[in-house]
Write a structure and sequence with these properties.
This protein is mainly alpha-helical. Helices cover 61% and strands 1% of the residues. Strands 1-2 form a two-stranded antiparallel sheet. The protein is elongated.
């Protein structure tokens, strides 16, 4: 792989933090564009501008760290909590009241005041520990993806306020890292429907008054910069650090964002790493070329990135999901696919991630794709994901012993070759007999595969080392069982049921 700008994949992956906070996609990217323009207006040095750039882009990279706590203590929907908190100054009584009113909106009227008071009593402590965790995790993740120590320091100050009423440590004024102060102004401006009014109102309170004044002087230029048509491309072009990365760094980026996704709920911790290791070993056993194996490994790390767009209360629900909750779950592969498509470096992984819940009989999601549409890395990933999940404890069931999970896996509509390879990789025995559609036997499937790709009966006989009459008998049985009478229809049957070599990613 050729070297690439570090900003290129990180800009796309920052969309995951937007979704985790209930914000529009690319809001962090646009805030970063605004911060870069403001840094220029304020005369920041190149190093200072670089710190501001990365701090603004990744300000919320650690936000999934406390999703479980926010869901458990503040109402179940961590995304609603973050969205409401971003729009409010909780040091102002009226805004704090509006915040708690939003959190209790679905509560019956008679219980609303009691529940609101209970939430208010514990909110400050939850918020302080949440901010500390968000900042600490964010700083560690920034170091892992290759950013300088100054960015780590700034990210630890992400939720401090100019007036000292911020979190977690109550630092005030110039004791807060300049990059964090600039990031706060940029995010407040871009997230608001009325940026000038919002920045003016928060100046000297949450926001550095000098940086706020700079924004107010040139707000039209700054907001025009942030409104670029292709925000991700504009952000990459404006990177003051021009940091480059290679394939090894891409692996670490994928690992970091795998952890971001898996921090969404405690029972998910390590899931993406485990699925990736299992899928990579299965791909090796199947003899995939190195580029396709890399696709499997990296896509497996990022396959659940779209989980962050679904509330933790849904993931942690112990009972059956409602139709609306189930629809939200069904969309998480879509969100992951769309995030990855925003990066040229990550785009080759997008289709595999988008297909990881598809099934060979078309019963999967989010597209309900047929077997013929499923690329080979996605087939492997789907199997590895299911097996690993079955062996994990979930809120609605206990973890299954590996042999029982393997038996369940073999009965699902998944790619047979991938099932065998994943079970081998997991050290579990293969199913004793493979089940094929329409009651086809193993030998009939072999004949069908060769027939479908255009081999004559004579060629099939030579390849399988049997007589032409035996091949003819098999073809007759195949046609009868599949309900077809032509080679073309037999080929279509084979495609529909995933019996041919799966397509490769371009």
């Amino acid at each position: 792989m050729e070297r690439f700008q570090l900003a290129e994949p990180l800009a796309a992956l920052s969309i995951a933090t937007d979704l985790a906070r209930g914000r529009p996609a690319e809001e962090a990217v646009r805030a970063c564009l605004a911060a870069t323009a403001l840094a220029d207006e304020l005369g920041f040095s190149r190093d200072e501008a670089s710190s501001a750039y990365w701090t603004t882009l990744l300000r919320s990279i650690g936000c999934t760290a406390t999703s479980h706590e926010y869901a458990a203590l503040l109402g179940g929907d961590d995304i609603v909590v973050r969205h409401a908190a971003d729009a409010a100054d909780l040091t102002v009584p009226g805004e704090a009241f509006a915040f708690f009113a939003e959190l209790t909106r679905s509560t019956p009227a008679r219980a609303r005041l009691v529940r609101g008071a209970a939430l208010a009593a514990r909110a400050r402590g939850v918020a302080r520990e949440g901010a500390r965790a968000d900042c600490e995790v964010g700083a560690r993740l920034a170091a892992r993806v290759g950013l300088e120590a100054a960015v780590e320091t700034s990210l630890r100050d992400s939720f401090e306020r100019w007036d000292g009423k911020g979190l977690p440590d109550g630092r005030r004024g110039d004791a807060i890292a300049p990059a964090a102060r600039l990031a706060a102004v940029a995010h407040a401006a871009v997230a608001s429907a009325d940026p000038v009014a919002t920045v003016s109102r928060w100046s000297g309170r949450a926001l550095d008054p000098q940086f706020a004044a700079a924004f107010l002087r040139v707000h039209e230029q700054v907001l025009a910069t942030a409104a670029a048509d292709d925000a991700v491309a504009a952000l990459v072009a404006s990177d003051p650090s021009l940091l480059l990365a290679d394939s090894a760094r891409l692996d670490e980026i994928a690992l970091a964002f795998a952890d971001v996704a898996d921090l969404k709920a405690p029972f998910l911790h390590g899931h993406s790493r485990g699925v990736s290791a299992l899928a990579d070993e299965a791909a090796s056993r199947l003899g995939l070329p190195e580029d396709e194996r890399a696709t499997v490994r990296l896509a497996a790390l990022l396959h659940d990135l779209g989980r962050v767009a679904v509330s933790t209360g849904i993931w942690e629900k112990p009972g059956p999901l409602t139709p609306l909750e189930w629809e939200a779950v069904r969309l998480h592969p879509y969100h992951g696919e769309r995030i990855l498509q925003r990066s040229q470096v990550l785009a080759p992984l997008a289709l595999t991630v988008g297909q990881h819940h598809e099934r060979m009989d078309g019963s999967g999601y989010h597209r309900g794709a047929s077997a013929a549409q499923l690329v080979r890395p996605a087939r492997i990933l789907a199997v590895a994901d299911v097996l690993h999940a079955l062996c994990e404890e979930r809120p609605y069931r206990q973890a299954l012993p590996a042999p029982e999970a393997a038996r369940m896996l073999a009965a699902l509509p998944l790619d047979p070759g991938s099932v065998a390879a994943v079970l081998d990789a997991a050290g579990q025995p293969r199913p004793r007999r493979q089940s094929y559609p329409a009651g086809l036997t193993e030998r009939e499937v072999e004949v069908l595969r060769l027939l479908a790709v255009g081999r004559s009966k004579k060629q099939i006989a030579a390849e399988l080392v049997v007589s032409p009459s035996t091949v003819h008998t098999h073809v007759v049985h195949v046609y009868e069982k599949a309900g077809v009478s032509t080679r073309a229809a037999a080929a279509l049957f084979a495609l529909e049921h995933g019996l041919l070599e799966p397509p490769k990613i371009d």
